[in-house]
Design a protein that fits this description.
The protein has about 140 residues and is an alpha/beta fold. The chain has four helices and five strands; from the N terminus they run E-H-E-E-H-E-H-E-H. Helix 1 links the parallel strand 1 and strand 2. The protein starts with a strand and ends in a 7-residue tail after the last helix.
Length: about 140
């Protein structure tokens, strides 16, 4: 299953970019990153079936194991692409939230966009290691 992160804004050279690159290299699953300008831009057509996850302050707080279980369920049921969308500064519209398969939050705090991207990549890596039985995640 392809893991695609769709994010507004360019990450450029930064400590967060280094973290994103580190976890991207470690991912054992197919991965793609689509960076869009603050407004507009073209999102690639999804591979279907596809699931969409919005990172959103109103989302669910999942443990790493719960997150991994959701990804594993999608993978095992034939989902070809899971999209993880980080919105612009004003977040996502009500329509986008309604159409998403999952709203995901990293706690109740508001995180800087670039740090949230790095946190997402780490959680994707962690989830894939949980599913493969790798010792990176020790419960």
């Amino acid at each position: 299953m392809l893991l695609r992160v769709i994010a507004r804004g360019k990450i450029a050279r930064s400590p967060e970019a280094d973290l994103v690159a580190r976890y991207e290299k470690r991912l054992g699953w197919p991965f793609a990153l689509t960076e869009l300008p603050e407004t507009g831009g073209k999102v690639p057509d999804p591979q279907t079936p596809c699931r969409t996850v919005l990172l959103d302050e109103r989302g669910r707080n999942l443990t790493s194991e719960e997150f991994a279980a959701i990804l594993g369920e999608w993978r095992d049921s034939g989902v070809r692409e899971a999209r993880f969308v980080l919105g612009a500064a004003d977040g996502h519209s009500d329509r986008e939230r309604d159409e998403a398969d999952l709203l995901l939050a990293f706690g109740k705090a508001t995180w800087p966009h670039l740090l949230a991207r790095a946190m997402l990549l780490e959680q994707l890596y962690r989830a894939t290691t949980i599913l493969s039985g790798h010792p990176y995640h020790r419960s």
